């Protein structure tokens, strides 16, 4: 994490302003933050596993479990931050955001569910991510701010929050319900169904919601679609409220199928790793 700062300074000096969020210095920083989060999860998990082995530590276990799920929710938020360029509201009628989320989310939901031993783990961690993101939309615009770099295509007078969070709460809830009812299934069967269920529910809720986000009805303080950064051009897709290269037909179907397969593979990996995490004691 520390090395990312001078690396980023050199990067800007050599190449100018970033045109993407996921630049090499930012990637190094995000990976460092992710490693710290994983370390915290393991510290909490070790204490939680020790508490679960002691019959008199029920209250301690519950407290640690809640803390584990909270940090897990922040970890989900980190995953979604890494996917910001793919999950922009104007891109939500194309395949790429669903493929990206199929790769990044089911593996973490499955891991947290198995490691925490909590039947609503995926739902809880998804809720933490969404609550934090919505709070940013409500709080950040309260603070004055002005761009210090140019060119300025849109006048900014206050801090600009990120876009409204993806509705991952719904597919997370679907996964929790599925896992509660399929405990006796073979691991590969549960993982296979999980990936397809995750993508199906995500598309069902997010596809029409994306249309709403690009409508004038969403232009209020809660949904925050009226906030634009200083680099937003008048003819930009977000300013014009139109989708960027939407996919249709066979391209859409094959892309979503690929996303579901990635989700299934990720679920199997996450559940296997999560079961191993239960044995961590120190």
Structural domain count: 1
Please tally the helical runs, counting DSSP H or I stretches of 4 or more residues: 10
* CATH C-level: Mainly Alpha
Q: What is the residue-averaged pLDDT? A: 89
The name CATH uses for the topology is particulate methane monooxygenase, chain B
- CATH architecture verdict: Up-down Bundle
Helix content range: 55-70%
CA distance, first residue to last residue: 25 Å
* Radius of gyration, CA atoms, in whole angstroms: 20 Å
Report the count of strand segments.
Answer: 0
**Contiguous runs where pLDDT drops below 50 for at least 5 residues:** none
Keywords: Membrane, Transmembrane, Transmembrane helix
Transmembrane segments: 27-46, 67-88, 94-113, 120-142, 162-179, 191-214, 250-269
Report on the architecture of this protein.
The protein has 282 residues and is mostly helical. The protein has one domain (4-277): particulate methane monooxygenase, chain B, CATH 1.20.1450. 63% of the residues lie in helices and 0% in strands. The chain has ten helices and no strands. It has helices spanning 4-15, 24-52, 58-82, 96-104, 106-116, 121-139, 169-181, 187-213, 237-240, 249-277. The longest helix has 29 residues, at 24-52. The chain crosses the membrane at residues 27-46, 67-88, 94-113, 120-142, 162-179, 191-214, 250-269. Keywords: Membrane, Transmembrane, Transmembrane helix.
Present the secondary structure layout.
Layout: H1 4-15, H2 24-52, H3 58-82, H4 96-104, H5 106-116, H6 121-139, H7 169-181, H8 187-213, H9 237-240, H10 249-277
Helix pairs in contact: 1-2, 2-3, 3-5, 3-6, 4-10, 5-10, 6-7, 7-8, 8-10
């Amino acid at each position: 994490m520390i090395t990312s700062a001078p690396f980023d300074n050199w990067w800007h000096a050599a190449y100018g302003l970033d045109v993407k969020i996921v630049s090499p210095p930012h990637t190094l920083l995000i990976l460092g933050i992710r490693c710290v989060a994983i370390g915290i999860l393991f510290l909490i998990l070790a204490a939680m596993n020790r508490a679960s082995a002691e019959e008199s530590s029920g209250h301690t276990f519950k407290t640690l479990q809640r803390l584990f799920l909270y940090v897990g929710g922040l970890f989900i938020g980190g995953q979604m931050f890494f996917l910001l360029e793919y999950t922009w509201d104007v891109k939500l009628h194309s395949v790429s955001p669903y493929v990206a989320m199929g790769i990044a989310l089911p593996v973490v939901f499955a891991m947290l569910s198995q490691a925490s031993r909590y039947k609503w783990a995926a739902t809880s961690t998804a809720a933490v991510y969404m609550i934090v993101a919505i709070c940013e939309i409500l709080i950040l615009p309260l603070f004055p701010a002005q761009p210090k770099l140019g060119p300025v295509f849109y006048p900014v007078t206050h801090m600009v929050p990120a876009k409204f969070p993806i509705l991952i709460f719904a597919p997370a809830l679907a996964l929790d319900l599925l896992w509660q009812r399929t405990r006796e299934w073979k691991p590969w069967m549960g993982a296979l169904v999980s990936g397809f269920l995750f993508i199906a529910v995500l598309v069902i809720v997010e596809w029409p919601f994306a249309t709403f986000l690009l409508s004038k009805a969403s232009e209020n303080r809660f949904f925050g679609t009226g906030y634009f950064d200083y680099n937003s051009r008048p003819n930009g897709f977000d300013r014009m409220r139109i989708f960027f290269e939407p996919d249709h037909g066979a391209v859409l179907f094959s892309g979503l199928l690929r996303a579901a397969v990635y989700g299934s593979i990720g679920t199997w990996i996450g559940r296997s790793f999560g079961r191993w995490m239960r044995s961590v004691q120190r």
